[in-house]
Each structure stands twice: as C-alpha cells, then as structure tokens.
Amino acid sequence: MPKFDYYLDESDPDIPTLRRQDGSFVAAFSASGATREGILEAAKEDYRELIRRDAARNLGDDTEDDTEDHRSA
Asked: Do the Cβ atoms of 50 and 2 come closer than 8 Å?
C-alpha cells in the first residue's frame, strides 16, 4: 500500500490547510473551527480515496475519475 504523510500548512493563520507530503491540497479549515479530530478525519478520508484509486488503477478500471476531490471542513 502506498504511504502518504500529511502536514498542516498554517501559512495563512485564518485558514489552516491540510496537505500531503508533496504539497497537494487535501482540505481547508476555519481557524476557529479546526479540531484535531476533524483534521484527522480529513486525512483518513483522503487516504482511503487514494487507496481506492490505486486499487482501481491496478485492476485496470478505466472508468475511475482522477479529478481531485477538494473538501472543506
């Protein structure tokens, strides 16, 4: 299984952004509403989706949509 690391980009203090190790966007949060649980859930959802896409590619499923799903929490 692929491994992905996530980090919280706090370069904009009003909108912390969850990103993968390659800098790609996962989710944005309100600074006043961001919780540890919400950030962890966004990372888990993103990881599940990446695993699903990888499995579909490995099985030769050409019907998968590779567009990014940009969620906000």
From this structure: yes
User: In the chain, pLDDT over 90 holds for what percent of residues?
Assistant: 64
Distance (Å, rounded) from C-alpha 14 to C-alpha 60?
42
Give every CB contact of residue 24 below 8 A, 6+ residues apart in sequence. Answer: 68
To which residue do tokens 């990103």 refer? Answer: 19
Domain residue extents for the chain: 6-59
Distance CA 43, CA 49 (A): 10
The answer to whether 27 and 9 have CB atoms below 8 angstroms apart is no
Q: 52, 41, 7: which is closest to 66 by C-alpha?
A: 52
26 secondary structure, DSSP code: E
Q: Is the pTM of this model over 0.85?
A: no
Residue type, 42: A
